[in-house]
């Protein structure tokens, strides 16, 4: 078996203090790191190929469309898996008045239909619908009337 390293390092010329490897073992040594000037300057071949400007026919404008998810809840109770108790149950709905309900009541007052003022508060289609879990009774979401 041949030794990998030379038996004794060769001395460089007197006064330099450097060690030289034998020519037959030169291929075993790693390449010397670049000098500071070589490392800080950017040679032209390292920059890569020049990018060509696209022609006007090839340019295309990209548009990003952001879709806001709508509520899965509707005006009627639905079957869902509760994120809190993880049971499959039908939601319990509760109607709550919104600003539109109050606006209808105000309009009825302005037209002096005082006997009909309570109607927007009795009609569920004029109000938002809140959904609650049928098992644990926790709030799940709202269906907003538009």
From TrEMBL:
<comment type="similarity">
    <text>Belongs to the CDIP1/LITAF family.</text>
</comment>
<dbReference type="GO" id="GO:0005765">
    <property type="term" value="C:lysosomal membrane"/>
</dbReference>
<dbReference type="GO" id="GO:0031902">
    <property type="term" value="C:late endosome membrane"/>
</dbReference>
<keyword id="KW-0812">Transmembrane</keyword>
<feature type="region of interest" description="Disordered">
    <location>
        <begin position="26"/>
        <end position="53"/>
    </location>
</feature>
<keyword id="KW-1133">Transmembrane helix</keyword>
<dbReference type="Pfam" id="PF10601">
    <property type="entry name" value="zf-LITAF-like"/>
</dbReference>
<keyword id="KW-0472">Membrane</keyword>
<feature type="transmembrane region" description="Helical">
    <location>
        <begin position="103"/>
        <end position="123"/>
    </location>
</feature>
<protein>
    <recommendedName>
        <fullName>LITAF domain-containing protein</fullName>
    </recommendedName>
</protein>
<dbReference type="InterPro" id="IPR037519">
    <property type="entry name" value="LITAF_fam"/>
</dbReference>
<dbReference type="InterPro" id="IPR006629">
    <property type="entry name" value="LITAF"/>
</dbReference>
<feature type="domain" description="LITAF">
    <location>
        <begin position="62"/>
        <end position="145"/>
    </location>
</feature>
<dbReference type="GO" id="GO:0008270">
    <property type="term" value="F:zinc ion binding"/>
</dbReference>
<keyword id="KW-0479">Metal-binding</keyword>
<keyword id="KW-0862">Zinc</keyword>
